[in-house]
Amino acid sequence: GESVGLHLPTLSVQEGDNSIINCAYSNSASDYFIWYKQESGKGPQFIIDIRSNMDKRQGQRVTVLLNKTVKHLSLQIAATQPGDSAVYFCAAPSNTGNQFYFGTGTSLTVIP
Amino acid sequence: DTEVTQTPKHLVMGMTNKKSLKCEQHMGHRAMYWYKQKAKKPPELMFVYSYEKLSINESVPSRFSPECPNSSLLNLHLHALQPEDSALYLCASSHTSGAISYEQYFGPGTRLTVT
Prior knowledge:
Chain A is mostly beta strands. Helices cover 0% and strands 54% of the residues of chain A. Chain A is globular and about 40 Å long. The model of chain A has no long low-confidence stretch (mean pLDDT 90). By secondary structure, chain B is an all-beta fold. Chain B is 0% helix and 56% strand. In chain B, the strands form 2 sheets. In chain B, strands 2, 4, 5, 6, 9, 10 and 11 form a 7-stranded mixed β-sheet that branches. A 4-stranded antiparallel β-sheet of chain B has the order 1-3-8-7, with no helix packed on it. The N and C termini of chain B lie far apart (36 Å). The mean pLDDT of chain B is 91. Chains A and B meet through β4 and β5 of A and β5 and β10 of B.
C-alpha cells in the first residue's frame, strides 16, 4: 500500500514568518495529493490539493509544491498566523484510488 | 451546505453497552467514510460506503457495524467495545470514492470513551 510520511512531527514558527511542512510518499504512481488541517477538537479540513501534472499550486496564503522525481511535496504557509496552529496532514490515494492514506502529521505551533 | 454533522459529540459507554454514532450530509455526496483517530495519530480508514453499498471494510472487528440507510446518513453501531477502542471517530463524505473527485469533507467527530 501507499506510505506517506511527514518529515517533522512538530514545527514552531514566529507569527508573521513563513512555514514549510514537508511530506514524502512512496508510490510513484500517485496522481493526486491533499493537504488537510486539523485544529484541536475538530475534524480535518481541506486546505489545498495538487494533481501530478502540476508541480506547484497556490491558494490563499498557501502553496503546495510537488517534486515527483524525489516523491516529495511541501506545504508553504505565508505570513503564518496564530490561527494556523494545528496539525497538518498530507494524504495520497491508494493504488486503487478508492481511499486515502494520511501521513503522520506535523503539529504547527505559531509563537506570537 | 458543505457540512458533515456527527452526533453525539461525546460518548462514554461501558463494555457491555450498545450505542450508535450518527453522521449526516446534504451535499449530494455518494461516498461516505468512517475513520478512527487515536490521539496524535492520523485518521485510519475503517469503512467506505459507495452509493449506499459497503465497498471497503479495513478488517474492522465485528463489534463495529456500519449502516448506510440512505445517501445522506451513515451510522456506526457499537457493541461490546474494548477500552482500546476509545478514540475520535470521524465521518467524511465525498462526491464519489472513485477517481472523479477525491476531496473528502470531514465532520467534527465523536469522542468515544469506553470504560
